[in-house]
TrEMBL record:
Listed name of the protein: Siderophore-interacting protein
This protein's record includes keyword Transferase: no
InterPro entries: SigmaE_reg_RseC_MucC (IPR007359)
Coiled-coil annotated residue ranges, if any: none
Amino acid sequence: MVILISLELFDGSRNLKKEEIGVVIEIAGNLAKVRSSRDGGCECHGDIEMVLTVQNPLSAKPGQRVVFEMPEANVAQVSLIIFIVPLVLTTIGTVLGWLLASNIGLSVIICQIIGGIVGFLLALFAIKKYDKALRNSEKMQPVITKVVI
């Protein structure tokens, strides 16, 4: 996979963007399916190929080699979601389990364990929703930036 990094590849929010090279294999409206291999589009055998749906503002045609940008999510934001949210929700669930057990006379440890598990499961659900929203976001969708002749 060829990754070109230059100063133009940073947008205003400091998100890094990767440029990759691929071949357009199909057009559907303003979107194109682009085949890209790990080595940057070489037709070598044994390479892992990806087929991505990308925005096609340059009206590239099937068979053309193109350069496309793939924005990366803000690393700090994603790290917060993946690492801190489960920790916080698990802790909140454990504390709520302790409060529940203290008020109604149940086993404190069992209520804390159940509360922690429920908090952790809620965190997993929240991460899954966030991931889906990020994938469906137009600003996170790859965009064709050049047609290579």
